[in-house]
Amino acid sequence: MTASVVAIAASAILIVTYALIVSERVNRAVAALLGGSLVILSGVLSQQQAIAAIDFNTLGLLVGMMIIVAITRKSGLFGYCAIKSAQLVKASPAGILAAMALVAGVVSAGLDNVTTVLLIAPVTFIICKELRVPVYPFLFAEVLASNIGGAATLVGDPPNIMIGSATDLTFNDFLWNAAPVAVVIMAMQILICHLIWGIKLRAAPEDRSRVMELNAGSAITDSYLLACSLWVIGATFVAFMAAEEFHIQTATVAMSGAAVLMLLDNLRHPVHLHGENVSKALTEVEWVTLFFFIGLFIVVGGVERAGLLEEGARRLAQATHGNVAATTGVVLWSSAVLSAILDNIPFVATMIPVVKGLAPALGGAEALRPVWWALSLGACLGGNGTLVGASANLAVAGIAERNGVPFSFVKFSLLAFPMMLASIAVAHLYLWWRFL
C-alpha cells in the first residue's frame, strides 16, 4: 500500500469514526472498535502495530481507580461527605450551593469526575427536596466543579491520564503545575454561581431544620470497608507521589491499590464467596469506556503512521513561527473550543502525537512543557462549555431528566460556554505568568 493510499484510508477511518461518536447514533465504544478494526483490515496497521499503539498504562490506571471507587462506594463515604457538607453551612441554600460544588471538585481531583457526579447528584436531590429549592443550580455547579477538579491532577480526568502517560508527566507534576490554577478557577466559578443563583436562594427555617436533622452517619453502611478504603486511597495517593522516585508507572500503583482493597474486602467473607465478591467489583468497571479507548488508540495510531499528525504539527509550527507562547495560546484556546463541541477524550488522543511533533520546531521536548499544560487545561476546562463537552455533563443530565428536571443543551450551554471562556482566559494568564 502506497503512502498516499495509507494516508487517505487513515483519514477516512478517523473522520467516519469521529462522525459516529459525535452523532451518538452508535455507541462510542462500538464506533471506536469498528474504526480500530478497519485500520487493521485495511492494512494501515498490522495487528502487532495496533497492539503497540494501545496505551496500556492509561488503561491500567483507569481500571485500578474504577475498582477502588466501586468498592469505596459500598461504604457510603460519598453520601456522608455530601450530607456533612450541607450541615456544616447550617443548611443555607447558598452555602450548600458552594459546599456541594467544592465537594464535587475535591472528589473529582482524586476520582473520575463521572463517578463523582453519579455519587453526589442523588444526594443533591434529597437535600434540595428537603429545602424545597430548585435542584438545577446545584447540579449545574457540581458539573462545572467536577470538570475543574478533574483538571487539577493526573488521575482526575481521562485526558490528563492520557497526557501523563504519553509524556511521563507525573502525579506531582500535575499537582505543582495544574492544581494551582484549578483552585483559582474553582473559586471564580463558585463565586459566579453564587451571584447568579446563590444570593436568590431561600429556604424556610423548618426546611433547613430537616436537613440539619439528617443523620450523616447513617450514610455509612460499612465501617470496616470505610476504614479499608480510606487506608488504601491514602496509600495509593502517597504511592502516586513517590512513583517517579521508584520508577514505577501509575498503572502499577492503581492496580496494586485495587488488588489490596479487593483482598481486604474479601477477608471478611467465606472463601466460597470470594469469586462472587470480586466479580461484583469488576462489573462496576466501565468497560464501555475502556474499549472506547482501545479502539481510539488504534485509530489514532493509524493516522500517526500515515504521517498526517506529523504534517499537522508542521503546519501548526509554521502558523505560530515556532514561537512557544503563540503555540501555547493556540493549543489552549483551540483545545477548549473543540473540546466543548467534541468529546475531549478523542480530541486529546488525536492531539498528543501532534504536540509531540512540535518538539523540533519549538526547541526540544523541554520547550513543550507549557504546550502540554495548555492541552490539558484546554481539554479539561473546555468540557464545561456545552452539554456534550464531557461525559460528566451528560451523566448529570440523564439523572436530572429521569427525575423530571429539564437539562437541555441550549439552557446549559448559554450559561456554561461564557463561564468556560472566562476560565480559559484565567488559564491563559496563568500559563503566560508561570511558563512563558
Give a concise summary:
Helix content is 77%, strand content 0%. It has 436 residues and is mainly α.
Task: Walk me through the structure.
This protein is mostly helical and 436 residues long. The protein has a domain at 1-53 and 289-300. 77% of the residues lie in helices and 0% in strands. Helix 4 packs parallel to helix 14.
SSE topology:
Layout: H1 3-23, H2 28-41, H3 47-53, H4 56-73, H5 77-88, H6 93-110, H7 113-131, H8 136-150, H9 158-167, H10 171-177, H11 179-196, H12 205-212, H13 223-242, H14 250-267, H15 274-283, H16 287-305, H17 308-319, H18 324-341, H19 344-356, H20 359-362, H21 369-382, H22 391-402, H23 409-435
Helix pairs in contact: 1-2, 1-16, 2-16, 3-16, 4-9, 4-14, 5-6, 5-7, 6-7, 6-8, 6-11, 7-8, 7-22, 8-11, 8-22, 9-19, 11-23, 13-14, 14-15, 16-19, 17-19, 18-19, 18-21, 18-23, 19-21, 21-23
